[in-house]
Design a protein that fits this description.
Length: 227
């Protein structure tokens, strides 16, 4: 399995952990909630779904809404397919959430992992955050050394671009430091629940105000008959 396909499977399982979805809705959620998948097609999504179905982690069901039931015979097409996580799929997703290997610190995988921090145990969150910070600090050190060696040979625009890249990494390191400090202090980044000052919700939402994987309104879905 490629790293990219592994990230996509993780994200698909995570979103379907919240609720069953049509392929169209799932693609839209991946695009809007997880920006790392902003540019990918059904040609990428459906092979992933088929793999997850074949692995026993998802099942396919006909659409259950009245619109789904009426649209298919009127248009001469099959009803939309809804994808639902199986018990084995839920267990597999929980196993993936517990992993803290080097892949969890890489740019694309970290973004996907962070989006599901609301379902991730606190000790795992800490290991992922600290691993990401360490990876970026190593990157900063290499960037700084490279800039020192090549500064005199670079034109002003290339030099400015490299400085911009370093500043972006430095900003993320500062952000990670704040997150790690909050985790260690036991502070909830989501803030207290409405009407419950100081209350802490450890099961829903993602830190930092990220979209909650299962809390967006259901969009209008066009015919979706791919499987």
């Amino acid at each position: 399995m490629s790293r990219r396909s592994g990230i996509l499977e993780f994200a698909v399982l995570g979103l379907l952990r919240e609720s069953p979805m049509h392929g169209y809705e799932l693609r839209k959620r991946l695009n809007t909630s997880l920006g790392v998948f902003r540019a990918f097609s059904y040609g990428t999504l459906y092979p992933c779904l088929k793999t997850l179905v074949a692995s026993g982690w998802l099942i396919e069901e006909p659409g259950s809404t009245p619109e789904d039931a009426l649209a298919a015979p009127l248009a001469g097409r099959r009803a939309k397919i809804v994808y639902r996580l199986t018990a084995e799929g839920k267990e597999h997703f929980e196993e993936l959430l517990s992993q803290t290997g080097p892949d969890a610190y890489e740019d694309e995988h970290f973004a996907a992992r962070f989006a599901f921090f609301g379902r991730t145990p606190q000790d795992v969150r800490m290991r992922v955050l600290e691993g990401r910070r360490s990876r970026l600090e190593e990157r900063l050190e290499k960037m700084s050394a490279s800039l020192a060696r090549t500064r005199e040979r670079l034109d002003d625009y290339t030099l400015e671009l490299q400085r911009h890249g370093m500043e972006s990494v430095e900003r993320e390191v500062r952000w990670l430091n704040e997150l790690i400090e909050s985790e260690r202090a036991g502070r909830d980044l989501r803030g207290p629940a409405s009407g419950e000052p100081g209350s802490r919700d450890t099961t829903s939402g993602a830190p930092g105000g990220l979209p909650r994987p299962g809390n967006s309104s259901r969009p209008d879905t066009p015919d979706d008959t791919a499987t």
